[in-house]
Structure formats: C-alpha cells, structure tokens
Specification:
Number of strands: 27
CATH topology of the largest domain: Phosphatase 2c, domain 1
Shape: elongated
Strand order of the largest sheet: 3-2-1-7-6-5-4
Strand content: 15-25%
Oligomer: single chain
CATH architecture of the largest domain: 4-Layer Sandwich
Length: 783
Amino acid sequence: MPFERDRPASSPPPDRAPGAAAGSLGSAAHEADPVLDQQAGIVTAASAAVSGHGGRAGAHASLPGVLADVPVAVLVIDQKAGSVVYANTAAVELAGNVHLPVDVDTWGASAGLTDLSGAPLASSSGPLSAVAQGRPVSGEAVRLSPRTSTEPERAGAADEFSDQLLWVTGFPLSQAGTEEQLSLVVFLQLDPPEEVDDPDAYLQALRERAVIATDITFTITDPRQPDNPLIWVNPSFTRVTGYEIEEAIGRNCRFLQGPATDPAAVAEIRAGLRARRTVTTTLLNYRKDGTAFWNQLSVSPVFDGAGDLVSFVGVQTDVTERVRVEREREVAFAAEQAARQEAELARAVAEQARTDAERAQREAERAQERLALMAEATSTLIATLDMTELLDRLARMCVPHLADWVYVTLLDEYGGIRDAVARHRDGREADLQEFTSLHVLHLPPMSPSRRSIATSQPVLLPEVTQEILEEAVTSPGARKAFRRLGGSSVLTVPMVARRRTLGAIALVRSSAGQAFTREDLELVEDLTGRAALAMDNVRLYQREHTVADTLQRSLLPVLPEIRGIEAAAHYVSASSAADVGGDFYDLLDLPDGSVGIVVGDVVGHDVAAAAAMGHLRGVLRACVWDAEDPDPGRVLARVDRLVQGLRVAPLATMVYARAIRPSSPGAPWQLHVANAGHPPMLLRAPDGEMRLLEGITGMLVGVATAIERDTVVLEVPPGSTLVAYTDGLIERPGADLDHGIAELRERLAAAPPGAGPRELCDAAVSGGLDHRDDVALIAVRFG
C-alpha cells in the first residue's frame, strides 16, 4: 500500500525499493491465522476501511473502483441487514441482474447456489449466512447450478453442463459495536478432482489455492507507531509486489514508490491521511524486481469504540493493463522509444563491459599463470643442492611451457664454459648432444648466449634468418643440428646473482608464428633471476661444504687401534651450514702404555667454534703426550693455563680419563679421571649394570688461572665400557640435565648383554637428538 503518514522534519527520507508478485486474500479469512490473532480488533474492525467510517456512501465511493475488475467474484454484506450491498462485475455475472441491496439468501437463490448434494443453501449453515452473521469462512465448497436459479430467464438459459464448483472465502470487515458492520466474500471457481485419496488434504489444498488465487490485496498500518508502519498484509501483497511478509512488516508503504511515481498522487494520499478520511487513487508503484505496475487503491481510517484512530486499511488491486490501454498512444510510443534507446545504450555498455571483462580475465589468467610458474620455480629450484639436478629442473620448467627447446650454459670460476644442459619437447637427444658439443660448449663471440654473458643483457631475436644463423653458429655441424631441432625465434637471458654472471639460458621456438615478445622477455628474466639465485646458493653451499669437509677430516680423528682397547665414537653438529662444531672427542695411545680418553665442548656451534676446538685439542694433546706428571687433574690445569695465556679458545668443558693397564691378566684397569665442568661419565659393567661417575667435578676451562683440579682413581674390571659424551646428548627443552642423564643411563642399560662400543653408541642416540647443540660421544671397552 503506497501511502505514508506525515513525517517529522528529522525523520529519514522515504524508502525507495522496487518490488514483484505472489500472494492472496485467504490469510485474512483463516480463523487460526496467528497474524489475525495478534491484530485482533484491527482486521475485524476494517469496515471503516470500506465505508469510510460511517455511512454506506464510503463503501460505494471506494470499493467499486478497486474491486470492479478483479478476476474473482466479490460481495460486500451488511451484517445488520443481512443483505448484499455491493457486487463486482464477476459477482453480477453469477446472480444476473439482481438489484442491490438484496438479502443474502435471495442473492444465493438468484445465482443458483447449492451445497454439494444439490440442496439449496440453508440460511442457518450456509457460508453466505455465516459471513452475514460476522463469522469468518476460511473455505467451503458450494455448487453453482444456474438451472436452480429463481430468475426464470437465468434458469431457462442454463443447460445440463453448466454446473460449477465454487470455493467460498469470507471474513468480517467491521468490529462489533461500530455503526456499520460489513463482511467481504470472495468466490473462486474450482475444478473437482476425478479421484481423491485424502479428502481432508484435498479440501485444505483447495483452500490454499483459493487463498493464493485472489488478486485483492489488503494491508493494515498502525498510525500510533512512528512512521505509520505496516503491521499486517495478506499473502496477495507478496504475489503482487514480490516482497515477503517479513520484508514489509514494520516499514512504511513508501518503499513501493519509485522514480516515476506521481508526486501529486502521493500528496493526495498524504492529505487524506492527515484528514483521516478515505482516499481512492491510482499511482505507479514498483515491485521488488524493479518492474513497475499501476496500483488502484482505497485507504481508509479505522476508529475504535472511543473514536480514536487505531489503523489505516488499504484495499488495492493491480490495474496495470487497464491503465496501459487508457494512456495516450503518443506518450506510450515516446516512452517505448526512450526505453528502447536506453536498452540499446545499456546493451552497448554491457557489450563493452563484457569485452573489457574478457580482456581483464585474459590478463588475470596470464598473471595467474606467471605467478604459478614463479611459485613453482622457487619451490622446485631451491629443493636441490646439486647443480646438475638444478639445471635439469630449470630446463624442464622452460620446455614446453615457454619454448620448444632450451639450452643452459654454466660458467666456471674463471668465466669459461663449465657445463651445459639442453632439452627438447620431442626428446631429440642425439641432435641436442651434437648441438651442445659443437656449439654450446664452444660459444662464438656473436652467439646470443655469449653476447648475453658478455653484456649481462638479454638478447631477443624475433626471427632467426639465414644470415643471423651463420653469424651466431659458426660450426657447420651445429647449424645442421639447429635446423633439425627447429628454430625461428631465440631469446637468451644472462643468469646473474650477487653481481656475478653464472651463465645464460637460451630459449628457442620452432613455429614462425610464435615469435618471442617483450612480455615473454619479462617473464623469462624473472624466472632466470630466481634460477641464478638458486644456482649461486648451490655454489656457495658446495664451497662451504668442501671447506667444512676438509676441516672436519682434520678435527675429528679416526680412532686408533690400541691393544686391549675396543672403541667407537659418534658425532653430530648442530650447525646447518657445515658438519662441524665445537664438541670433540679423542683417544690417545700414550708413550707410557696408558690410554688417554677425552671429550670436550667449546662454546659455539659453527666453524669458528670448530677452529677453537682444534686449537684446544692440539693444546690438550701436547700437554698429555709430553707430561712430566701424567695426573689428569694436573694435565687439565696446564691446559687451562695455556688456553688462557695463548687465548686459543673461549670457555670450554672437558673430561679427561687416563686408563692404566692391569699388572696381570684378569686384573682390573686403573682409571684416573679429572673433570672441568663437564657432564659425568658412565661406566657399564660386564653384566650390564650402569654406574654414574659422579662427584668428579671442577671449574670450566678458561674461567680462572691457578685452579687445582682433583683426580679420582677407580678400578675397572675387564669387559667394562666407559661412555663419555657432551651435553647435547642429554639436554632437552624444559628438562634439567639430571633427567637427561637418567634417560641416557636407561638406554645404555637396556642394551643387550655383551653389547660392544658401537652398539652402545647407537643405543645412546636412539632416543632422538634435539639438534640444538653439538653431540660428541665415545665408548671405550677395556679388555
């Protein structure tokens, strides 16, 4: 209902929203409708909406124009008189030329209405009588039999096939106690089913069909609420406007207005609402989907028994077709032409937008493909540290995505050609090998790859002519191989990383219509830059790995073979850059026949720590080998003084044990042990029992001078195994060293009886390493 109440100056502007159709009258007539229950006294007080609150003239002034041409028969009944006071065109056709007002039974007899069995409708139980008495009829089937009409002319004109089924729906429009009490009745023609399995369900379906079929729209607003919002609409409102009930309730009806709604018609409605009088007009509204329709409506106030305004009721119908016929042809033609021009313009704009969208989509797809290629290149190329594998992966990424075949040239440290990799989409291994051996490994000065290497700039040859080929490829055999491989366009890009040219990549396309472009050049430059950086990382890794390997071989000795001794060692570096660190172990066959066993840990986990460890190990060996006093405590004291005096290492921990051979077979070994802040050694007896050599302590190396360290002497039975280790084996995040030592002790104790040093080393590291610190481990079994 497109009306609105006067708004305060501070209220927001009217809603503007177009709308589209489906709904019915039936909810207004259903006895159990919860909406009607909530609005009791509003829907049933709607006589004023029809009559204009007082006097039959109001009904005659508003209803005929609204209900005259709806496709269903509509009656308005005066409840007090029990008579029909209004009938639209379709209702007149049912009863013939019956002068109004007329009582409901007379009207029904004139129309020839009977119950389903053919008996006349009883005044006490018929649906017309029920509505006349103010009772709603949610749906009842009756029979229209013109042969039984009380009008002779109508009965004589009827034939035996003229009977019809009608569905009657009615509800009161007035509230008890008002001066005029009216009811509305709607007839809908139905076709009887040939066979019904569930009569109750069929009757309910008929009721719903009747409700949905009506074109009459009823709406109720509440002027007592801000902005006079809708508080009830019948389902026909949804069918006509397209707005669901929940989308309409709570909003002012102005949301149906649009840009072409006549302001004068809106002003007329607003004036009628201010004056609290019935207003009937026709104006242009908009459905939810944006389509316009002409709406003829009557808006009437509803007052309660005290005379207070409680609601406005609107009765409206879609009269678009009638208005369209009535409009002047010139205006319609002009509107049609304008609409056609707008449509053409919109079509042109849409076509241009579609073209632009397709172009943008193609560009986006190319950008997406480029990003995907770059992402794949990054993940693929950095996944290997082998140069040959890296070059092969680069070639496989280029063919066939970017070129028909490719060859990559790699330079050595002195700028000479070190290696070359080639790949063709069809294989062609023999031709590639011939071209590589004759040309790629001996690039002439004018070849595109050599020019890219010399200038660090790309070379783009959109077309390879005979002259260019003879100048760029000097070997006749290479030229023949090039022709067999196929080549019409060439693009070469230097591979530069960290201001160093590592080589060049050459891409070749065979088809004459697929020459390389500047866009291809940008893509290949991006790819080549990533490949060059990955190649340089491999080069640096290999160089550092070589250095680390050399250093490791010099710092981690091969355990010597010593009579009466069986030994094994294990080493893991925490450094991710090189397989060396600050932890070390050593086994010495001393000149006096004793055996030296040492494990140490220099602060740090890198090459610098490894170098410091090498110095410390050398100092220790010197002090042990040429010691006037071989006591381990005094040896460590001399090492401490030399380290601090020569500054050969930072802080370090160390444990040193000197094993003295037994004086006779079967006698125990004597073990002299001194400790400089290092984790305690473990001793495994021949029967597998574990012993922690605790209580042997001392200050770290490099802390202070003139520190005397104690030496503890132990007797070790033959077959016992001494295990010395660094703290990387027992440290765990969130746990103390005692817990780590206990776990190591359990792992060693769980080794099988008779397990040798190698098995014990494996058992020691079987619990997993944290890799946050270096690990050095040595196991020595005394025979």
